[in-house]
Each structure stands twice: as C-alpha cells, then as structure tokens.
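User: I'm writing a tutorial on reading structure tokens. Could you give me a worked example: one chain, its sequence, then its tokens, then a sentence or two explaining what the tokens reveal?
Assistant: Sure. Here is the example chain.
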Amino acid sequence: MRIIITVQPAYGHFHPLASLARELVKCNHELCFVTSKSFTPKIIAAGFKCQPLGLDWEESKACETFKELSGIVDRNEINLFWMKHIFAGETAKYMIPDLLKFSRKWQPDLIIHDPYEFAGALISEYLSIPRIKSGPMVLLPSSKLCKMVSDSISEHRKNLGLPADEDLSFYYDCTELAFIPRFLISKDICLSRNVYFLRPQICDEAVYENSSKLFDKIDIRKKIIYATLGTVFHCFPEKWSAIFDAVRYNSRYSIISSIPDRQIIDLFKHYSNNIFVTDYISQSLVYKYCDLVINHGGLNTIISAVLHGIPSIIMPIGADNFYNARQCESEGIARIVYFDKKPVENLKIAIEDIMSNKIYCEKISLLRKKIKQMPEVTKGIEIIEKL
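And here are its predicted structure tokens:
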C-alpha cells in the first residue's frame, strides 16, 4: 500500500505518528511524509522519506512567519489565531495545491493526516482517497472547533468545488487512531466516527551520546527536576525566570532544562550552580534520573512522563495546555501552577508537595497499568489494512 502522511512541522505533531510509520514500513508499506521544507530534514533524519510541500515554516519559529502572533497576549485569542489563521488558514491554503499535485503524481492508496493538518482531509475527499486521522488529538468540543475554523475551511472547500460543510462533518466522518490514554478525554470532546484508542508510544528522536554528557556535571544524588516548555512556547525568558527562581537557592534540587533558543540559554547558563540548560536533551534519558517534570502541558510531554512514572507540575501557556492540565490534576497525577498567579511562590509549594507525597506516584502507577492494557500499534496496522 502507498501511503502519504501529512504532518504539521513540529516534533509534537511528528512523534505521535512516528511509531505508526515504523510499523507500516515493517509491514512493507510504502510511505512518504509531507511537511514544510524546513522540517523535512528532521523527518528524513528519523529514517523516513519526506516530500517538502506547502508553506515553509516551523511551529518553533512561528512568530517569524506569522508576525501578528507576537502581538497577541490573551490566551484565547492566541488559540484562535493558531487554529483559524495558521492550521486551518494559511498552512492549509499553501498545502492544498501542492498536495493535490503530488497526490495525482504519487497515486497513494491512503492518506493519513495529522488532526491539525486540514489539507490532507480535504484532498482525500476531493480525490476520493481513503483517509485516517492520527496524531495529536484536537481536544475541543465540535461547536468550539467549528467556531474557530469553519470560515477558513469553507473557503478551501469552495475553492476546491466541494459542497458546503459548516458543521465540519467531513472532519469527524473518518477513522481515527488515537495514541492517547482515555483519562485525557473529557465527556464534552467530540470524537471521530470510528476512534480506536491505542497504547501511546514513546518516540524520542534524540542522540543519546550528546544528551548523556550533561549528566557528567550533575550530582544525581540530589532530587532532579526536568523543566521543558516544549518547542513552541519556550521563547519567554520571564517564564523561565519564574521556574528557575523557585529552585535557584534550594541545594536539595538540581534542575535540567531543554531550551531550543540560544539567546535564552545564554541568559541562564550561569544563573545558579544547580541549574543546567541545554538546547536539547533526550527525554527518554532524563526521565531515567528525574523525580519531577515541570512542563507546559504539551500532550507528548505529559504522556511520556506518565509512561515513566513521573508526576508533573503543569504551567499552561496556550493551545491544549490548559485542558490537559485540568485533566491531569483531576486524576491526581499533577498540580497546576499559573504563570500569572504568584508563580515562584506557588511553584515552590507545589514542588515540596509532590516531592514529599507518594500519592502522586501511586496514582500514576495505576494509570500506567491501564495504559499497558491498551491495544498496541499493531492493532492500528490491522485497521489500516482493512480499509
């Protein structure tokens, strides 16, 4: 089977699809990823064929491509801009003609699309190619998603000559492979017609040798905290300052942070002798040593922490962060600290609570057992091959 996989240009979108793609290759299916030119080398480095199409951009540098984004402060407005103008708007607009041309040439039997990549869904409908949705789930009620993206999607459908679909039924009328634990799905989330929940896979395309050198400098006898704000929301020095100030003078803890921004690294590389910053570190490696993860609430980071049995303090910033944080706190596996509500003081309290309270790890252990009972990725291959 020939399969095109369309994905937005970020590790947070690619990693959930990578384990599925590896299994497809093992089963002798021919596949080709499609993403932006700038992100293409990262997918190729992971061992996959990739075709650069559409707008040339990366989520981690979104403010460089979408200048208006840097001037938006309100988190609801930020989320609206991402969904309406970026995912359903500009990136789909540029991807649609390129993907249409490539699909006609490559003749795929199936299109798998990242749920945030709308062009794949539209082109599959236009060319009558079977499709599957898989990747980071859009954790929104259908009414809210419609309000955000329906205008943009309606314009694309009109340009393609597709019938109007104001309630986005085309988006939900499909099979979805969801590599996500059920506890992260609340009752108000609208799911696709056929959803198969599969066991999440840890995918960490890191170079262990480079990451492991950092631990030569760290006293692993101390309690180790790993801090990350992901690849999109990392570019706020004041947020890193709040995190570091909470542990700066506490000799019982060491904190390791991955910050993909050289200017921010330079600001904090000599901040304190118990704070270690680097541009990238393998999460699979750091989770072997750390006792707590401070993060923004990104889906992959949360799931990976749970799979390693590590509790979180979630400091949500945007996108699905706030939703994920609430779900995790309600399960008793994390605490929420808000950046706009005495973050340093509240972060200190949360750290001491989690470090001294075994209940967080006990609840994570119960969730891990449930996750291990979920169907493996091979079940996803069976579903694909039956289409």
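What the tokens reveal: The longest helix spans residues 75-106. The longest strand covers residues 30-35.
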